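Let us work through a complete example step by step.
Step 1: write down the sequence.
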Amino acid sequence: MIDTKIRYVFSAFLGIIVATSFLIPAAKADRLASVKKAGVLHCGVVPGVPGYAFPNKAGKMVGFDVDLCRAVAAAVLGDADKIKTTKMKLPVAFNAMKAGTVDVVTHRFTWTFGRDVGQGLDFTRVMVYDGQGFMVRKSLGVKSAKELDGATFCLSGGATTQGNVSDFFRKNDMKFKQVTFGSMGEAQKAYDAKRCDVFATDKFGLGARRLSMSNPDEHMILPETISNEPISPMVGHGDQVWKDIVVWTFNALIAAEEYGITSKNVDNMRSSAKNPFVQRILGTSGKFGAKIGLGKDWAYNAIKAVGNYGEIWEKHLGKDSRLKMGRGKNVLYTKGGLLISPPFR
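Step 2: predict the structure and record it as tokens.
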């Protein structure tokens, strides 16, 4: 009798395992399937930061973060323009991602332990290596962050900025006052309205936001970088196939720069390149697309639509933009930077 019960329990347990093993792949494929069914990729982007996500003269949203969205749309849907972008401040973007109302967030969020673990979110890969800095008015007369003892900061609640400022001032035995706002944009407006002495955020973000101040020339960015801020797009937790698609689309943009593939020469490279790495990236050999539910031209489509990583940077943040920002750590590892793609093999 006991043996019969044990066999029954074991059989039931085994049945649950088998059933679950069939259910998991279907669940993981939901995001890809839903995007294909909708025919549009929904991306959360940073609200109104020049260079990252900002309306052009025609009112169309453009920028570095928008092109990351367009690259994924090109890979998945074959058309980079099949996107919907929604401007989202920090808590809204996190909640939307967890609720599944957006497909990917290309907003400028720092990858931290607290955000990555137990939050229903997955960071994908670092697309910008940044660090926090301080912006002040030139009239304040300071040359270093260590001269800011007693200063008042305009800060965004819930951002890593608050903790970084607190750590820096505690370490240097200084004091500061803070006025906290619901978003980075609100904190910026308050600083521009002279409600505080200092505006703090990631340095590349400071360079971009400075352009939207009422008088950009009044402001300067102090030399100190007080933190490491690896910026990564996010997807919902638990959908490994969708995460792989997003991660490897971004890897393709970086690998394309390494191998000299651009939006202008990609067709010629696809037809004539002898390098096996180039052939695999562009889908003329190997079956990488099939492994993530996409066609063989997925990476080719992304690169053709937005260019390689370097092209995207220069267009929106670098020499071809109003920002004229150097890439810093965001150059290829072959040039001493931190950017590297795992091999397409």
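Step 3: interpret the result. Residues 30-129+231-335 form a domain with the D-Maltodextrin-Binding Protein; domain 2 fold (CATH 3.40.190.10).
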